[in-house]
Amino acid sequence: MEYLTTSEMAVKWNITRRRITTLCEEGRIEGTMLKGGTWLIPANADKPEDGRHYRYKKKDE
């Protein structure tokens, strides 16, 4: 399995490296692992939904 760093994923997903680190720390990206202070993320991982915005959530949720 191929792994990418937070910097490489930041370019791929068009979000900041810090945001990806936060997602890894929160366990929101499956298959990540911390090795020597560097987060390794599977290259085929799906970008998690942005749970910070509540404006567009359905009223019944």
User: What's the N-to-C terminus distance?
Assistant: 36 Å
Number of helical elements: 2
Instruction: Give the biggest beta sheet.
Output: 3 strands, antiparallel
Return the structural class.
alpha+beta
Mean pLDDT: 88
> How are the strands of the biggest sheet laid out side by side?
1-3-2
Strand tally, please? Answer: 3
Your description of this structure?
- This protein has a domain at 3-42.
- Helices cover 28% and strands 16% of the residues.
- By secondary structure, it is an alpha+beta fold.
- A 3-stranded antiparallel sheet has the order 1-3-2.
- Helix 1 packs across helix 2 (17-25).
In short:
The chain has 61 residues and is α+β, with helices and mostly antiparallel strands.
What secondary-structure arrangement, pairings included, does this model have?
Layout lengths: L2 E2 L1 H8 L3 H9 L7 E3 L2 E5 L19
Antiparallel strand pairs: 1-3, 2-3
Helix pairs in contact: 1-2
Name the descriptors:
61 residues; alpha+beta; 3-stranded antiparallel beta sheet; 2 helices
